[in-house]
Amino acid sequence: RNKPLPASEKPALFTMNILPPMMTVWHHVVRKHLGDAVDIVIFDSSGALNPKEFPGTRVQKFINVYAATKSDIFLQRIAKNRRIGWICDDDMFPISSKMIDVLKREFADEKTAAVSFRPRDWWHLEIDGKSYEPMSSYCTAFNREILVEKEHLSLGPADGNTHPSHIGKPPGKYDTCDKANEILIQKGYRCY
Q1: CA–CA distances in Å: residue 103 to residues 113, 130, 135, 160
Q2: Residue 2 confidence (pLDDT)
Q3: How many CB atoms lie within 10 A of CB 79?
Q4: What is the tens place of the pLDDT at every residue in 134-150?
């Protein structure tokens, strides 16, 4: 059932849901502001979404596993025919059509691996004397050719995060996307 989306220049936009009323609002906002500029995929982990209520969207029932696992499956299998795979939490609302312009502009640079619209702000990556905001998994688009095909990275969490914190204690763990973000920067990719 993890059939890939057909090939297209459009970004593939993904979210996951366990609360159907939230999904109705999210879908409405995305359709209003992004229209047909993206193809939408929803993993329905509630089992309660009616696909007919989400026109132009692939609604797929999916077991409620960790968010990073769902995102990896989306990027590796569902969006495999797309250059840009975009993950977005169902409580992050894309409210501007200019987001598509940002993706086009930033991904025009072949070294851009990711574009985050909501980076983490309570700690930062420190790599080779430079500071970087962690991209997070809240609303981030990826160049799949880099993340999946070339580097074979997972968005899964990991232990051992000793980067500087802005709240007084070290993060301790890398949350979803954070370890991949660190590796991409260390390999010379751009994460905007």
Answers
A1: 11, 24, 14, 31
A2: 84
A3: 25
A4: 999 999 999 999 999 99
